[in-house]
Write a structure and sequence with these properties.
alpha/beta, 431 residues, globular, five-stranded antiparallel β-sheet, 12 helices
Length: 431
């Protein structure tokens, strides 16, 4: 009956304080390598009643390794319904404030049903779990569907290139999922040319648009490689591209999965026809009922039962969908969503910064990285290294921009908003 709230270990203590305060959990469980972070967080806890170490020395905390003090009998099965919360997955937003998307027992179940019925998952399939559990893809892309069908999941501590090649060649893998950056690292590895991919039935990329050259290298090896599309609020899996259509629909994510409705709308809310580009809306039993204790944000995102994704897409005359880009003020770096408003808020807290805007710029390895455009305060003595160090202390490393451009002013739109399109076109106008 618990509600799972997996914490992103990549975040700083400052960021974790906000997420823990928002979720108001009663129990915190941790593994030994994060004890320092837990100790730094302790003073901020207001709702946590129990702190439990999963393994090893626990100090003053209870440890799962020591069974004394834990009930010896199995607890009564809780009375749960499909609409009860299963987990809270935190996702950023255009405001820069993380929001906890609720996934119910029904959301998790229906995502699995959709995946099994549309992707053909069965008990003979094997996949490694390398995606983190604090991402919705961790439990939902292959793990829960394989549990439901009696297949096998190989749990990995993380993404290790040599271990990955070992698993592909001798681990019996049939299915594999990763973000584009992981595939690029695999293809640059010395073992790529000699690796035997013949047992793999499906290789899928998610988290960010996958470059065509990456896909082509798999196709050359006879591998059914395709792009997926998912988001935290829609439980993970949403489309299926049949193997026979991969080569002729190279940029498409395919058809909606079973029990999922899709449509594309214009800015005024009218539904668009084939070939027209607009915002992608999703409806189905796998879609979140809303954000944890954020009724206003929920009402903005889910309207009349339709999830507004903020992503731009089009459907062709055969019913295949292509995701064009994002309307949200967001970019993706190495598969991680980065929300500029959050970084801008931290930059603005620096005494020497009068104004700041962050944009995503192309990067060979990570797809996109941040670039900060900063207007110094009068008399301030700013430099790039100092600003980046300031950010590194306050936000996760993957959110920290790779460069800073110092400007006299940040261009504005007619209504006074920062004109990020112009900044992106000029790549910040670095001085």
């Amino acid at each position: 009956g618990i509600i799972l709230q997996n914490l992103n270990w990549r975040l700083t203590v400052h960021e974790l304080e906000g997420i823990v305060a928002d979720g108001e959990p009663k129990v915190l469980m941790y593994s030994p390598e994060w004890l320092e972070n837990v100790d730094a967080l302790r003073p901020s806890f207001t709702t946590i009643e129990h702190i439990v170490a999963m393994t090893g020395e626990a100090g003053s905390d209870r440890s799962l390794a020591e069974r004394d003090g834990f009930p010896s009998h199995n607890p009564d099965r809780p009375e749960l319904e499909m609409d009860d919360p299963w987990g809270i997955y935190y996702t950023g937003g255009t405001t820069g404030l993380p929001k906890g998307a609720i996934l119910t027992h029904g959301n998790i179940t229906w995502n699995s049903v959709n995946t099994i019925s549309s992707w053909g998952i069965h008990g003979g399939h094997v996949a490694p779990l390398q995606l983190p559990f604090f991402h919705v893809g961790g439990p939902n892309i292959f793990l829960v569907p394989l549990v439901h069908t009696g297949g096998k999941t190989i749990l990995c501590e993380g993404f290790d290139l040599d271990e990955t090649f070992d698993l592909i060649e001798s681990g019996g893998l049939t299915h594999y999922v990763a973000v584009p950056t992981m595939y690029q690292m695999m293809q640059a590895h010395p073992r790529w040319d000699d690796a035997d991919f013949s047992r793999l039935e499906l290789v899928i990329s998610g988290g960010a648009p996958c470059p065509l050259p990456v896909m082509e290298k798999f196709w050359e090896r006879g591998i059914d490689f395709k792009m997926g599309y998912g988001l935290t609020e829609a439980a993970g899996n949403n489309f299926w591209l049949p193997p026979e259509d991969v080569a002729r629909k190279t940029t498409s994510v395919g058809h909606p999965l079973f029990h999922i409705d899709m449509k594309v709308i214009a800015e005024d809310g009218t539904e668009l026809g084939d070939g027209e580009e607009g915002e992608l809306l999703i409806r189905g039993p796998h879609v979140t009922p809303g954000y944890w204790r954020r009724p206003e944000a929920t009402a903005e995102t889910i309207v009349d039962g339709w999830l507004h994704t903020g992503d731009i897409a089009r459907r062709d005359d055969e019913g295949f969908y292509t995701v064009i880009g994002r309307s949200k003020d967001m970019f993706i770096s190495g598969g991680e969503n980065v929300y500029p408003a959050e970084i801008e808020s931290v930059l603005s807290s620096h005494a020497g910064v009068a104004e700041a805007a962050v944009i995503g710029v192309p990067h060979e390895t990570w797809g996109e990285v941040g670039k900060a455009c900063v207007v110094p305060a009068s008399g301030a003595d700013l430099d790039e290294a100092g600003l980046l160090a300031y950010l590194t202390e306050r936000i996760a490393k993957y959110k920290v921009p790779r460069s800073v451009a110092f400007l006299d002013e940040i261009p504005k739109t007619a209504i006074g908003k920062m004109d990020k399109k112009l900044l992106a076109a000029d790549e910040g106008g670095a001085s």
